[in-house]
Amino acid sequence: GSTAGESDITNDRGGRTTFADAGTTAGTSDITNERGGRTSFSSGSTADHSTIANQTGGRTTFAGTGTTAGSSHISNQTGGSTAFYWGSDAGSSHISNADGGGTTFNDNSSASLASISNKSGGNTTFNDWSSAGAAKISNTLGGSTAFNDRSNAGDAKISNIAGSTAFNDRSSAGSATIGNTLGGSTAFNDRSNAGDAKISNIAGSTAFNDRSSAGSATIGNTLGGSTAFNDRSNAGDAKISNTLGGSTAFNDWSNAGGATITNVALGSTQFSDRSDAGHATINNGALGGTSFGDHSSAGRATITNTTLGSTTFNDRSSADRATIDNNGGSTSFKDDSSAGRATITNENRGGTTFSGDSSAGRADITNGNRGSTTFNGNSTAGRAHITNETRGSTTFNNGTDAGWARIDNEGGSTTFNNGSSAKHALIANTDDGSTTFNGGSTADHAFIYNADGGGTTFQSNSTSQLATAGQAFIYNGDDGVTTFTGTGATAGNAFIVNADPGLTIFNNGANAGDALVFNTDGGQTKFSDTGTSAASSHIVNVAGGSTSFDTQSTAGDSTITNVYG
Questions:
Q1: Entry pTM
Q2: Which backbone phi and psi does 331 adopt, to 5 degrees?
Q3: Mean pLDDT of 252-262
Q4: Biased composition, Low complexity: where in the chain (predicted)?
Q5: Helix ranges (DSSP H) in 9-107
Q6: Are 337 and 358 in contact (CB under 8 A)?
């Protein structure tokens, strides 16, 4: 119960002052420890309102439950230090560490309500399950704080301005509020966890390494601020926002977990090095974007791109089994990337584009009202299922093909332009849906079904750029129509069936090539206009099927067989 009152105490060259037992207090003393000098508080004693300076190797220690720094002012400089042990706490003290001075919390000790400043090489370290309590910690100009050995930041408020904080050895940020500004940084290492922390990176950064996790943290990156996940780390269930040039990067097999990520106003998220979006929810708003590269994957994420928001897949990356909604926004696949088995919806001027040897894989793609899918530059529809609803569309451009895809035009449309091919696709045009082959395109070996007002058109006015049915099988039934129009339009070697009552029309100089045309049960083939010809086709009219030529068209060298009515 003794007190040092208002003493001036100097411990130098191994000199020592000890405060022991409950009620023992340093009062308002001025204490200086230097050159190996030391002050010790233990067994419930308190530094009270004292002022303590530790310098050039001087040291102050607090040990034992109930032992506290009180409301003291402690400064550690040029190798001076303060250490808390075995349940002691920093109380509401003010601690300053500079020029190599430091404070350590060990063995379940706590920073409690202290205000701690680390600058110019000053540092604070929490070890062995210790806690920052509700302290206010400032790291500036090279100052730093480290949490080790399952220690916890508690409810602390930590500011890093050109300073840093590190969480190591399964330590946790608890419910802390952490601000990284102007080059300030926070790092989570060795399976450490951000807990429920609130982290703000304003021209500062946060990094998760060595299988660490963002937990349930709320992280904001802005004005060039950034967050990086490395070395199989994961975003947990964090809420991450990237704005005004802020960014988040997933590298080295890292995973977005179940995080919610929002990118707006030049904010961005990048996945690379086989990283995975997990089950994350990713929202890309105006001028916000997400990109995948280097064999990375969208996993089973839910990705929404609204107006001017975008997602890009590069370098053999995959959309995997993600759900992607382009509601006014866009998704692009490039450089051998794949849509995998993703579910993709395009609407309200939203669109998906494939280019650079990319593939739609086995994706399920729906183009709704004013939604579109476009294939460019050697890309392919793979084995995707593409549905074009009313005012929805799919376009194949030079060097692209529909692969083995299934394309349903349910009131919507598909267009093949110069240099494109339907390959082996199954194409169904119903409910006024349509497919158009322009000059230089081919239906190849596709199966095309037209019914319920749906139709297919082959059109070209240039014999050097044929729109040809190739060796396709085309079925027109129940008011389905196929039209060949222009001197460059030809049925090639196709097999065409018109029934119940389907119709094929040749006009404006088109020709039936070497096609086999079968008309039955009310199905018809019609030739009209100058230069239109049945060419070398084989036409069979059976059981109510018919073929008609107007006065300007010709049967050419065709073979026409009429049987059973």
A1: 0.95
A2: -130, 135
A3: 98
A4: 16-28, 56-70
A5: none
A6: yes
